[in-house]
Design brief:
17% strand, 240 residues, alpha/beta, TIM Barrel
Length: 240
C-alpha cells in the first residue's frame, strides 16, 4: 500500500523544522500524493507561530503542483480536560486540525485516568480531525474506552511514522492502539510527521507494523483517494 495523502507535516514556522511550505508541497508532488496538510505547531509550543500565521494560511492556494493543500495546525492538548491551544475562531479558518500531547506544553503525570479524561474532552471538539501520535507511554490512556469515542465523533486515529524513530517508548502502544482500532473497525490515518521535506509521504515503517499485525487496509483512510475525499467532504469545509 502507498498512502495518497500525508496530513501531518511541519515547516520552518514550527521553529524546529527545516523546510518551507512550498518545499513540503513540492515533496508531496514528487511522491505523487493527492493531498498534503501543513500542520505547524500551536502557539504554546516554544518558537511556534502566533494566531496570525494560521489565520493567514488562506493565501496558500487550494491546489499547488497538482496537490491539494490542507491548511491546518497541530494543536496542543494543554490541560487534562482536553482543551487546545487555539480559539474556535482560529480553528474555524483552518481545513485540518491534528490534536496531540507534547511534554513541552502538557506536563506528563503518568495518570491513565487523567489522560483518558483529556482525550475524551478532545473527542468532543468539533474542529479536531486527527488524534496525533497518542502512543507515548507517559500519556497512556484507556484505549478500549476512548478509541470508540474517537470514531463516534469522526476523529481519525493517527499511526505516526516518526514515533518509530523518535518515540521508542511508544512503539508497543502504537501496536496496541492499532489493534484496538482493528477490533472496533475504527479508521486510522498514517502520517509522516515530517519536519523536513524529504520525509513527506514516507510512512513505510508504520505500514510495515500494520502489515505485521494484520491490520485491514480498508481501515487506512488515506490509503484510498475515494475514502479520504469522502471524509473531507463530510467532516471538513475543504470543498465547501
Amino acid at each position: 500500500m502507498k498512502v495518497i495523502a500525508d496530513t501531518h507535516c511541519h515547516t520552518i514556522a514550527s521553529g524546529h523544522a527545516y523546510s518551507s511550505v512550498l518545499e513540503i508541497i513540492t515533496a508531496a508532488a514528487k511522491q505523487k500524493l493527492w493531498a498534503v496538510a501543513i500542520t505547524d505547531h500551536g502557539r504554546t509550543t516554544p518558537n511556534s507561530p502566533g494566531d496570525w500565521y494560521f489565520e493567514n494560511l488562506f493565501v496558500v492556494p487550494k491546489i499547488v503542483d497538482g496537490v491539494y493543500v490542507l491548511k491546518g495546525m497541530e494543536a496542543n492538548v494543554w490541560d487534562y480536560d482536553g482543551n487546545l491551544d487555539a480559539s474556535n475562531l482560529v480553528f474555524s479558518r483552518l481545513d485540518w486540525v491534528v490534536a496531540s500531547m507534547h511534554s513541552e506544553t502538557l506536563k506528563p503525570i503518568n495518570d491513565i485516568d487523567a489522560c483518558t479524561n483529556a482525550w475524551l474532552g478532545v473527542a468532543k471538539n468539533p474542529f479536531v480531525n486527527v488524534i496525533g501520535h497518542s502512543g507515548e507511554e507517559r500519556y497512556k490512556y484507556d484505549y478500549d474506552r476512548v478509541i470508540p469515542e474517537f470514531a463516534h465523533n469522526g476523529k481519525l486515529v493517527e499511526i505516526n511514522n516518526a514515533s518509530f524513530r523518535v518515540r521508542k517508548n511508544a512503539i508497543e502502544n502504537c501496536k496496541k492502539i492499532a489493534l484496538i482500532c482493528k477490533k472496533y473497525g475504527v479508521y486510522i490515518i498514517v502520517n509522516s510527521d515530517a519536519h523536513f521535506a524529504s520525509q513527506v509521504g514516507h510512512v513505510e515503517v508504520a505500514l510495515e507494523m500494520l502489515k505485521e499485525i494484520g491490520f485491514p487496509d480498508e481501515l487506512i483512510i488515506n490509503g484510498y483517494k475515494e475514502k479520504f475525499e469522502r471524509y473531507l467532504r463530510e467532516r471538513t469545509k475543504f470543498f465547501s
